[in-house]
Structures are given as structure tokens and as C-alpha cells.
Amino acid sequence: MIRMILCAIWAFGGMFFCFPLHLHYKHLIKKDPMKGWTKAFKLVQGYFKRLLFFAGTKLTVNGAENLPEDHAVLFVGNHRSYFDIIILHTLVKKPLGFISKKEFENAPFLSSYQRDIGCVFIDRENPREAIKTIGEATEHIKLGLSMCLYPEGTRNHGDSLLPFREGGYKIAERAKAPIILVAMSGQDDIFENNKHHFIRKRHVTVTFSEPVTPSDMSVQDRKAFYADIPNRVTAMIESHNKK
């Protein structure tokens, strides 16, 4: 209960009291997107690190050496918890935005902070709008902002992955950027899997794959790689249980 109270105070209090900074970032992003995203990222990264401290979350990270410091990538991973986003944000070395569900676009406070870090909102039920969002995310990567995609489309608490939607991979292909796969396990035990949704002290394992650049592949190899991504992520998750 104490962890839940601390996390709630930090989460909602932080969003409220930092809101004036959003107005500054919004103005800055219009003039210099990457500069604005970078400033917002540094604030949010520190904010999330403190949130994980209050939650008592311990991390084991494999493949951290694969995280780039000088160029943007498309992260592709499994999605089990809201903590996926929080944890990933604390580990990356460059500013990071997410491809977020359309439903969050008008969420009070939250949507403003999502825009501050370069998130884009995708309507998967509207192909025309989804194509526009993919184009927007592509431009973000070209400007130097890494993006994260969860191809399952929603949080999944099952034993196996939901089908991966491959359309988002075009972001990396068109931006000529690498894809880094991200596999997490244990993150939904922090909050979602607990009775009454209390925050619990838990251990989370994260693995980053080596980067793969789809635009450097032949069409046939690229299709094979896309089709194999769920298998690769599954294998990475299963490796956590063997350690």
C-alpha cells in the first residue's frame, strides 16, 4: 500500500506541477523539434527512474551494449504493462517516442507529455490515418528521435504473444534505420497482475537484440525477418526463464 501511495503521489503530482514545462516544450518543439524532445526526454527519464525507485523495481538488463548513442532506431517489443514504457525510457541513451494508441490522444495531461517526447498516435482501425502516422514516425526517426512500436497493439498478459502487425516496420525501412528488438518479462507483476492493482516490489528482465537494418536487406530477406520477429522476441523472453 505504501508503494502504491508513493507512486501515485509522484505520478499525478509530477504531471500536475510540471505542466508549465509542457508549455515551454511545446513552444520549443515548434522551433526545433529535436531540441525540445531532448529536453523533455531528460526530464521524463529522471521522473521515471524515481518512479521505479518508489515501486521497488529491480532490473536485469541484457544487451545494453546494443543501445546506440549517436543515431535513432526503431524499438520493437512485447507489451505486457504500462511499466514497459517507463522501464524502457530509463534504459535508452537517446530521446525516445512511442507509437501510442489513438485512445490516448486526448487523455488529460498524459497526451501533452506524450507529445513532448515525440509520441505519435495511431488509429489501427483507419488504414488511411495509420499510414499518415507511420509517415510521421518515420520523419521523427530521420530527425534523430528513436521510436518504439508494440506490434501486438495492446497489453497482453497471456503466455504467448498476440499476432504482430507488420505495418509499423515500414517506419524503420523508410527511415533507413535499424530495428532493435526488446523483450521484457516480469513487468506486469509490478501492477497489473496484483490483487486490487497494488504496486509490488518485483524483478524485471530486459533484453535488447543486436540491431538489424531492414533497408539493407533484399525484399525476400526483409519479409523473412519481419515474419520471424515474433519468434525472436519469444526466444528472448524464454531465455529469461533459463537464467
Provide structural commentary.
With 243 residues, the chain is of the alpha/beta class. It has a single domain (2-241), classed as 3-Layer(aba) Sandwich (Glycerol-3-phosphate (1)-acyltransferase), CATH 3.40.1130. It is built from 8 helices and 7 strands. The protein is globular.
Brief description of this entry?
The chain has eight helices and seven strands; from the N terminus they run αααββαβαβαβαββα. Helix content is 47%, strand content 14%. The mean pLDDT is 91.
- Relative strand content: 5-15%
Low-confidence stretches: none
Q: Whole-number average pLDDT?
A: 91
The SSE order reads: HHHEEHEHEHEHEEH
Provide the descriptors you would attach to this structure in a database record.
single chain, 243 residues, alpha/beta, Glycerol-3-phosphate (1)-acyltransferase, 8 helices, 14% strand
Chain-wise SSE layout:
Blueprint: H1 2-17, H2 19-31, H3 33-55, E1 58-62, E2 74-77, H4 83-91, E3 96-101, H5 110-116, E4 120-122, H6 127-143, E5 146-149, H7 170-175, E6 179-185, E7 203-208, H8 219-241
Parallel strand pairs: 1-7, 2-5, 2-6, 3-4, 3-5
Antiparallel strand pairs: 6-7
